[in-house]
Amino acid sequence: MPIPRYDLLPTQFFVPHILQATRGCPFTCSFCTTPTLNPGFRIRPLSEVIRDIKYNRFKYWWQRKVVWFWDDNLTIRRTYIKKLLTKMIPLKRWWLTQASMDIAKNKELLDLMKKSGCIGIFFGIESFGKGSLKEASKKQNKVQEYQKRIATLHEKGICVMAGFIAGFDGDTPTSVKVMAKQLYDIGVDVPFLSLLSPYPGTVLYSKLDSENRLLKERGWEFYNGYNVSFIPKNMTSNELLQAHRALWKEAFSLKYSLKRIIRAFFQLRWGAFLMCAFMNTFYCLKAIRGNLPVCFEKEK
């Protein structure tokens, strides 16, 4: 592949240096579109990836310093990722990506991640409910291991971003709202909170369709991760929506945002702390201003 035309991107401060080294994921989570859109697992030649990482004709220093791997699951092919990270060490970049929690068990990989400049890892943790994890086909996630695995990343000074989804059949309004404290207690530095979306082509879509629980009159504007497009099991669609909005406000309240930033100051390396502080401040300001994710659903 030729080098991406980064020169065509808008010259704005918040435009990141994004690239992909791999595509695809071996896991088959019930709600995920990756197995359909990017089946299998493919890797790019290391020389091309390093070439793209070295691209530095950006306007702002952080764009030249930070590389964001937009991979589905970058660390799956262990031999490949270790070779890539070894080649990245002399480049002295900061980088972040998405991976599975099992990386916390691989000391050699974690050491390479630190040496090569990793500042952030996104985990799709999804839920605290064992039933919900089973429903999501997230067999690789173990609730009792969340805190330990995150602590292992913190030992390397790496910021842990984590995705959580509300709306599984085991969820109730109460279980959704209390997630703000649970997220803090297990050590998550930056939470990403979304609502379950049954995208066509997924196992989840087929299941809800067979149970006549899809709200088919709702268009694509409801499939942005912040609106409800199906009938939940233990609450109404509006109850789920309101519970999620309450969770969002609490998780990014001034109290929890400051607590995460202060904790990060003592736990994370400099680049990871800066990212954690920026992201928490950004979302906290949105919560304070009431500028929450757009909601198209009207109360009933």
How would you describe what is shown here?
The chain is an alpha/beta fold and 300 residues long. It has one domain: tm_1862 like domain (pyruvate-formate lyase- activating enzyme, Alpha-Beta Horseshoe), CATH 3.80.30. It has 13 helices and 8 strands. The chain has helices spanning 34-37, 46-54, 61-65, 78-88, 107-115, 130-135, 146-155, 173-177, 179-185, 203-210, 237-251, 254-267, 270-288; strands spanning 18-19, 22-24, 41-43, 66-69, 94-99, 118-126, 159-166, 190-195. The strands form 2 sheets. Strands 1-4-5-6-7-8 form a 6-stranded parallel beta sheet. A two-stranded antiparallel ribbon has the order 2-3. Helix 5 (107-115) links the parallel strand 5 and strand 6. It is globular. The chain starts with 17 loop residues before the first strand and ends in a 12-residue tail after the last helix. The mean pLDDT is 92.
